[in-house]
Amino acid sequence: MGWADHYRRRDALDAVLRDARRDPSAPLIVDPDVFSSVNELLLALDHRWQNKLTARMETAALEGPVDEHLVTAELAVDEPVLRAVLDAHLSLGSYRAVGMTP
C-alpha cells in the first residue's frame, strides 16, 4: 500500500467515525473504492483501535506495571465513537468470523 492508499483509507475511516457520532449502531457506510466489505472496514477500525491501545500500553509500561483494564478504559473514554462502533457491530461471534479476537 502506498501513501495515497494509506491516506484514502484513513480518510474513509475518519468519515465513518464522523457519521457514527450520531448513532454508532447504525449501519456502516462502506466506500467501495476503499473497502470491499463491511468486514474489511471493521477490520480496519479494529486495527486502528489496536494500534492506539498498543501505543498506550507501551507508554504505560515505561512508567512501571501496567493496569491493562485501566489503560483500555482510558482509551475508550478518549475514543468513545471508535469503541462504540466496534462494540455495536462486533459481537463475540462476529469477531471470530472476521478473524479478530476481542
Report on this model:
The chain has five helices and no strands. The protein has 102 residues and is an all-alpha fold. It is globular.
Write a brief caption for the model.
With 102 residues, the protein is mainly alpha-helical. It has 5 helices and no strands.
Mean pLDDT: 88
What can be said about the biggest beta sheet? Answer: none
- Estimate what percentage of residues fall within beta strands: under 5%
**Which overall shape is indicated by the principal axes computed on the Cα atoms?**
globular
Counting DSSP E segments of at least 2 residues, the number of strands comes to 0
Helix content, binned percent: 55-70%
In whole angstroms, the N-to-C terminal distance is 26 Å
| Poorly predicted parts | 95-99
Question: Which features would summarize this protein structure in a list?
Answer:
102 residues; mainly alpha; globular
Topology summary:
Layout: H1 3-20, H2 38-62, H3 68-78, H4 80-89, H5 92-97
Helix pairs in contact: 2-3, 2-4, 3-4
